[in-house]
Structure formats: C-alpha cells, structure tokens
Amino acid sequence: QKEVEQDPGPLSVPEGAIVSLNCTYSNSAFQYFMWYRQYSRKGPELLMYTYSSGNKEDGRFTAQVDKSSKYISLFIRDSQPSDSATYLCAMIPITQGGSEKLVFGKGTKLTVNP
Amino acid sequence: DSGVTQTPKHLITATGQRVTLRCSPRSGDLSVYWYQQSLDQGLQFLIQYYNGEERAKGNILERFSAQQFPDLHSELNLSSLELGDSALYFCASSVLGSSSEQFFGPGTRLTVL
Predict the structure, then answer these.
(1) For residue B33, which residues of chain A lie inside 8 Å, CB to CB?
(2) How far apart are CA B10 and CA A84, in angstroms?
C-alpha cells in the first residue's frame, strides 16, 4: 500500500462547478498537508498548506484535513478554465532529525470546460 | 515565479554520460530539496541539504550525488546515465524551522537517448 493515495482522474467539469479532490494516507506520522497545482511542463505551485484537522479557506479554495480518517480534500468553488491543471497532495511526516521531505500523491488531472 | 531558479531547462544526452543540474534557492532560504518526476513514479524525493549539509536522503541512486555550496546554490550530479533516468528534476527551497512551505523551481527536463 502506497503511503499516499490519490485518484489520478482525469476529472472533467463544466465551468462554475465545485470540484472536490481527495487523498488518503496510511502513515500517522504525517502532520503537515499541502496542495500543489502543476500546469503542464511547469514546476508545482503551492496552493494550500495546513497542519491541523479542520478547514482552511483561501479565496475559491478550501483545504480540509481529517486526521482521524487519514483523509484530506481540496475544494475549488466556481471553477474556471484556468484551474485546468494537475493537483498534487503532499505531506510531511514528523521524523527525528527534522527532515521535511514531501511525500506526494500521484496527482489528479483536472480539466474545466468553458 | 517562485524565486527558485534552475538551469538548464532542457538537457539531452546519451547513456553512460554524466550531467550536472543547478539550482539557486529563494533569497533567504537555507534548505534545498531535489525531486524527480516521472510518469510512472510521480514526484519522488531524492535528497535535502540544509545550510551546506546533507539533511535527508530519499530514493536517490548511488549514481546520483548532490551538494550545496557556501552561497547556498545546489548541484545535482547524475552519472552513468540510463534511459530510465529520463525525467523532470525539480529543486525546491524553504526556510527550515519557520515554515514547511517548499517552493519549487521550473525544473530541468532530462532526456537520455
């Protein structure tokens, strides 16, 4: 079983739809959770970062973490064609030595159709 | 623009060769990370440096090595290249200790023929 599972999609939605992206994880040591957006042939861009269970909102984006279920989500409201990209969840485990290596999901490819 | 720069953007080379990828972190960031992205494996952590010292190792092959210099830029050296080493290589940087936010560079696309 992979440490981080993410449905690769692809996911296709009409403009204005609410998008829900999800990841599950198996390692209880994961304490920091991030969502990155990656456009084709570009570097990942940090969208959301959180370390506690609950919701965090930033504009049209909401990140949700449920540590008891080992489940994180990213919601995109009023989706736009410019949101078309691959979305990657990422997590950092707490380790001795303080390394902050990211463990990524495989990414979900999202297309928002005008 | 994340503030992290990587050179070159593209690299085409032959099997058995050696290449060097370069990364300059954001101003003020002390920590540099290297990641490899391939279609089948996704983004995989390779190695981390903090203020010139190796901090953590991931799935990095023995043929690969890295270092961080006093001016904090980093280089990833890939030797005895194989076809399977073709991938996107990303560098990220962060201010270790005050934030876990890692900012990625634009990547170097390596093609091994």
Answers:
(1) 100-102
(2) 24
Question: Within the 89-108 window of chain B, which residues sit less than 8 Å (CB to CB) from chain A?
Answer: 90, 92, 94, 96-97, 100-107
Closest by CA to B37, choosing from B107, B93, B111, is B107
> Residue A2: what pLDDT?
78
Mean pLDDT in residue range A54-70: 94
Contacts of A7 (CB under 8 A, 6+ apart): A22, A108
State the residue for tokens 């440490």.
A3
Pick the residue from chain A with its C-alpha nearest to B109: A41
Q: The dihedral of CA B56, A2, B92, A36: what is its sign?
A: negative
DSSP string computed for A56-95: EEETTEEEEEETTTTEEEEEESS--GGG-EEEEEEEEE--
Measured CA to CA in angstroms, residue A62 lies from A19, A20, B9, B40, B93 at distances of: 10, 10, 33, 29, 25
